[in-house]
């Protein structure tokens, strides 16, 4: 499936399901943009506490090892509960705030006032 995704020349929607247990998983909606080699990821609105850290790290590992992207841009809804501690965790992990006007921001977000964006650069 990954080979099929990587063959596209245009942005491709991907739902990445990361399992915590056999019956519990978190679905991460994302778009892989081969033009700038960035994976854009929407933070799920409901993230079970037991799934948050492990699945997020697995997501970053998948982006780096399987998709071989240069960066991951995370989109976080402004109304997300407990976003303060989430932002602190993202900064500790190496994410940086990303302006909506940045060329690396998702397209058509210059007027987006409902989301925050963070970028994680993957080093070679």
From TrEMBL:
GO terms for biological process: positive regulation of protein catabolic process; viral translational frameshifting. PROSITE patterns: ODC_AZ (PS01337). One of its GO terms (cellular component) is cytoplasm. It comes from the Eukaryota. Transmembrane segments: none annotated. GO terms for molecular function: ornithine decarboxylase inhibitor activity. InterPro entries: Acyl_CoA_acyltransferase, ODC_AZ, ODC_AZ_sf. SUPFAM superfamilies: Acyl-CoA N-acyltransferases (Nat). Interacts with ODC1 and thereby sterically blocks ODC homodimerization. Belongs to the ODC antizyme family. This is Ornithine decarboxylase antizyme. It comes from Ceratitis capitata. The lineage of its organism: Eukaryota, Metazoa, Ecdysozoa, Arthropoda, Hexapoda.
